[in-house]
Amino acid sequence: MKGEGMMDISIFEPTTIIVVLGGLMGLLLILGAPIKPIRLVGSGLVKIMIGALGLFIINSIGTLMDFHIPINFITACISGFLGIPGMAALIAIDQIIL
């Protein structure tokens, strides 16, 4: 009887990650922050989440071309704050140097 009727949801499933990141970004964008420092931190967190989501998409496509970029705080910051050029730089570093 243990565990019957309960869904097995892993926090590391791609769908769960996308839903959680999307929900957090939506919450930050809808509610906003009235105080400028909090707004600045919120903006930075949104950029980092967008960078992590971008890396996730690149890794999903990269499985077809046999490359993988680790998703961690540093790579998420690079791709989030630098955008597409930052992601291109991470791909170039992965392919040429590593």
Summary of the model, kept short:
The protein has helices at 14-31, 36-65, 73-82, 84-97. It is mostly helical and 98 residues long. The chain has a domain at 34-97.
Question: Could you report the average pLDDT, rounded to the nearest whole number?
Answer: 84
What are the segments in which pLDDT stays under 50 over at least 5 consecutive residues?
none
The gyration radius over C-alpha positions equals: 17 Å
What's the helix count?
Answer: 4
Structural class: mainly alpha
Q: State the share of residues found in helices, binned by percent.
A: over 70%
As a percent range, the share of strand residues is under 5%
Q: State the separation between the terminal residues, measured CA to CA.
A: 50 Å
**Strands, total number:** 0
Question: Main sheet?
Answer: none
Basic shape: flat
SSE succession: HHHH
Question: What is the chains' assembly state?
Answer: single chain
Organism: Schinkia azotoformans LMG 9581
InterPro entries: BofA (IPR010001)
Protein name: Inhibitor of the pro-sigma K processing machinery
Keywords: Membrane, Transmembrane, Transmembrane helix
